[in-house]
Amino acid sequence: MPAANPESRVSLCPHMRAPVSVPAVDSRPITQRLKEDNWDLHELAEHDRVPQAMVKGEMTRQGYVELLKQLWVVNRGLDAALVAARATTPVIADLVSDRQLQEQYLRADLEHFGVDLESIEASDAARAMLGHVETLSRTDAHALFGLHYVREGANNGNKFVAMKLRKAWGAEGESGFRYLDPYGKDQRPLWDAWKARLADYPLTEPEKDSVFIGARSMFEQIIALHRALEPLAIA
Ligand code: HEM
Fold first, then answer.
1. pLDDT: which is higher, 213 or 22
2. How do residues 98-133 score in pLDDT, each as one tens digit?
3. Ordered domains of the chain (ranges, CATH)
4. What is the Cα 173 distance to its own chain's centre?
5. Nearest CA to ligand 1 atom 32
6. Which residues form the pocket of ligand 1, taking CB atoms under 6 Å from any ligand atom?
7. CB neighbour list of residue 175: distance below 8 Å, 6 or more residues apart
8. pTM (2 decimals)?
9. Whose CA is nearest to atom 39 of ligand 1?
10. 180: helix, coil or strand?
């Protein structure tokens, strides 16, 4: 992945007595920045023990269900925060569709595995993530959108992970895999079209910065959630 853009440049204004560092505007589309400058965290997230156990087909159904439970807790909270933020934040109203809300897929998967949703207890990592969502809801809705960008983008790899788990477990169809593979064969075209809409979306520079910062924080939160689940999710 290319290196990050320089964060500042030196002013050449002849009226300045000394060189002054001023913030540079990042000319890349926000989507390019989101991908390139977060790939370090993607590498960390992808190669952590829990995602690797899944993609190698080594995770048990029981471990998978434990993971789904915590993902249900955090994504239910994030869905609710995004739905509320549609009223105030155009990029969320325009780009977060009902189909992209993830609680519905997690609920279907957990019901498939016979889990009573009422019995689920949030882990400390899930509670920390819910606290983060709540803080951003109050302070920075564009960062909240950044959280959503990462969970939506993660579907690209999750589809592949679902394929590997199906093969390892001799499972077929979408039951139990709705969260990992919500769009089936439409995954890539939907992602490309959505990214194109975001690239063209009118956001101010500070709003773009917030989306970016939110996205980075989502990678960190998901990594923490996965690590906390290692004892339960990896046999
Ligand atoms: C075994 C685990 C994983 C695999 C195999 C994987 C694989 C992939 C692949 C193939 C893509 C598409 C790259 C492209 O467009 O060229 C992708 C995109 C993405 N993945 Fe992953 N991934 C994994 C785990 C994760 C995790 C755990 C997260 C979140 C914490 C994540 C977040 C994303 C995001 C946000 C994108 C979109 C990048 C962008 O275009 O901005 N991935 N992943």
1. 213
2. 999 999 999 999 999 999 999 999 999 999 999 999
3. 42-233 (1.20.910.10)
4. 24
5. 154
6. 34-35, 42, 45-46, 51, 55, 150, 153-154, 156-157, 160-161, 219, 222
7. 108, 109, 112
8. 0.91
9. 35
10. coil
